[in-house]
Design brief:
Elements lengths: L1 H15 L13 E7 L3 E9 L3 E7 L3 H7 L1 E5 L3 E5 L5 H6 L12 H7 L4 E4 L3 E13 L3 E9 L5 E5 L6 E3 L2 H18 L3 E9 L4 E10 L4 E8 L4 E11 L6 E11 L44 E2 H4 L13 E3 L3 E5 L4 E3 L4 E20 L5 E3 L2 E7 L9 E7 L13 E8 L7 E8 L3 E19 L2 E18 L6 E7 L5 E7 L3 E9 L2 E9 L6 E17 L5 H8 L5 H47 L5 H44 L2
Parallel strand pairs: 1-15, 13-23, 20-28
Antiparallel strand pairs: 1-2, 2-12, 3-11, 4-12, 5-11, 5-16, 6-7, 6-10, 7-8, 8-9, 13-14, 14-20, 15-18, 15-19, 17-18, 20-22, 21-26, 22-25, 23-24, 26-27, 27-32, 28-31, 29-32, 30-31
Helix pairs in contact: 7-8, 8-9
Amino acid sequence: MKTLHRLSVLATLMATAAAPAFAQDTTSAIQSVTLYESGLAELTRATGGAQTVTLRVPMRDVNDILKSLLVRGAGVTGAKITMDGSDPVGDAFSRLPFPPEAVTDTSALFTAVPGLRVTINNNLTGVIVGVGEVCKKDAGCHMSLDILDDEGTITHAEINVGGSIKLLDAEIVEGITTGLASLRAAAGDTTRDITLVMTGNDVSDAQVSYVISAPAWKTSYRAITGNNGSVNLQGWAVVENATGEDWSGIQMTLSSGSPVTLQSNLFGRDWRSRDDVSYVQEEPVFASPMFKGMSADSNEGMDLQRLAAAPVAAISSGAVMSDSAVDSRFALPGEQNIPAGKILSVPFLTESIDATQLALWKGSLSTNTGNPDLILNIDNNLDVRLPAGIVTISEGKTGIVRASDPKTMFVGDASMPIVAPGEEVDVKYGTDRHIEISERTSASTQQTSVTIANGMLQVNGFERSETTYKVTLHSGAGRAVTIDHPQIPEWNTTAYVDGATTLEMSEETSGGQNWERFAMVLPADQSEATLTVTGERPTMQIRELSSMNSDAFLQWSGSVTTDAEKAFLDTAASLSGTISDLQGVLTSIRETLAQKDADQARTRDNISAAGVGTPAHDRFMKTLIELEDEIVDARSQEAELNTNLVNARSALEDHLAAGI
């Protein structure tokens, strides 16, 4: 029941409200569209001599338009944009004495605005002083009001079905009308009206352009191979119009590139926190020259002439195909028509491209067996980069698509990356099951020379890697096979082939790896061939002679190339052996001294324990004298060995320093 009363009141109020006028797009139709692979569309509209233009745009595009809208044209000296804010309902009710729910709930209205003057059921006039609800078993619930009339009498009035309440406060009625209009607009708040005002005298030939989000256009290639080392390449663009507006008679340009694209919430409100300093009166932000004449409550737009540089010059479409540092562009000939929500697929490129079909095996410097890939090697001889996309490859005798040509047939799909002008890429479209390749790799090292100089032993040699690729044709003969062998920096490569008529070598780079490419042809009477690729690189080891022992000297003595070097190392081995022998004897003497020192200390303890004049005392004294004599002899030997060891080390150092 309460709902019925709400509707009856709203119906009365809406009958007294003026219907809002919906703004229409006053611009001309879209004149040109540039689509980007990054998911953007640049729309250009011709506005002629109009100085006020209204764009009705989807909410999703508002931020992009505020970010990118450009104005150009003769006589244009400045421009500004105005539009409703991001919270039109909140803005509308911020000036009304009741909240949004009050316009759809009469009891909430009467509670929010006490003292409203009304006429109930066309016979009771007064001021509302109380709002209630009456519930009866048979009639349900309905509103009740306490009315204070002009005589001071309070009457309890029940608003039954079909009852009416007439508001006598014109300001409140106007506020309800305004609030309803804002709620009605917000209910379908999917668009915004953006009003652009251009200033200047004799404005003419004006254009507005802006960049918005759009479905990325996609590329689908048709590659028809021929027998002349080229392919007929057709690039088809798949384009979707998701702007909600028909594109009729537009000039369309496709951009292939990777420009930086960013988003910014220019439309949403950005409330900043401020410190509360009660005794400082700061100058409002709108007092700055950039915002001169604007207030915090102003509905005026921001003057773009003050915020931006002079109008930007229009981008020239140039030729049908053009290339720049940022992108390549393909301007489609004629006018294009794409209704809203429709997809168009249309050729944007038809050129003869240098290309070669290969049966390609990529080596891995390991043991492996398998089948080579079917590759289309594309060399972009055009002046524009080719967009990335899927490639459908067909074989044709002439390389030209003809429905009646029985020689044209599908052979596979491939994924093609972006190909810059002059760049060469391999795209795989299948596997050649008629060819088997067996790869085997072995590695070895070899010493070539040992030399002595400046107290150093230099060992020269090389590392060697040998990879054998055995090619077997299981069916057919007279095939061309290409093998990519990994190129290792600083390695020298040689190759020979057995069973093939030709062997051509070139260098390729793909996937960050450098390759040596070997192209060979097996003759018609040959079903097997072997390619052997040998890689070598020199090695060098440096060892300090002073860090070597006698065994190492003797070991390298048998590897040096001259008699003088051998004699030098033999002498070094002898001197080093003497040092080793002396160190061994010295170690033994020191161990003997340590034992005799212990025996001497123990004998002295025994003498102290035995009584003077006793046989034991005399025996221990004799032993002590003998030990002391032995210790003196051992220390003399130790001193002599130390001297000999110092001399031997000096002799070795002098020998090594003297060199050969």
